[in-house]
Amino acid sequence: MSTTTVVHLLRHGEVHNPKGILYGRLPEFHLSENGVRMAGLAAEWFTGRDIAALYSSPLDRAKETAQPVADEFGVAIRLDERLIEAGNTFQGMTLTSRSMRDPEVLRRLYNPFRPSWGEPYSRIVARMVDIIKVVRKEAWGREAVCVSHQLPIWMARRAAERKRLWHRPDRRQCNLASITSLTFEDHRLVSVGYTEPAAELYRKGPAMPGA
Question: Which GO terms describe its molecular function (predicted)?
Fold first, then answer.
């Protein structure tokens, strides 16, 4: 008989960011009121599931998203750097259509396959696969939640589905407070699921900066 284990990758909720800064790994970027509601809806989605472990990126927005899950299941939040946001040289900037024509910006965009403006996709996959294996072992036969960020989760999914890593950012299926679920039979990945428990709270218009 095989053993089924599920690792859920939960993206954080909406961030309070009125200036539209690409916040990346910067501290002190917290969930907005809407983001707090998103985190609550995500936690509700897990109700009735056998959550044995809860891990989170150390960034504020991820920890705040993890807290309702911790409260729901009485599990401690374990912080792990492998779940952190992808490194990005544009961190702290506010990018507009005008600034995107700046030579200082353009010179960083020469290679979309690596990518040249941030942490290599292959490195993101390596750290995400590493933590997923650790969490799967801890939650063996049960379920676990890892709170992370859009690009790391999307890279983990593309690697799991054996797809090329370079992609169009506007086509990522990893919305705010969404859940990407990896189901394993023993050590073998058998399915990838995706759901958006907080879809009713999504705002219309351009995507929020950062991830």
Answer: phosphatase activity
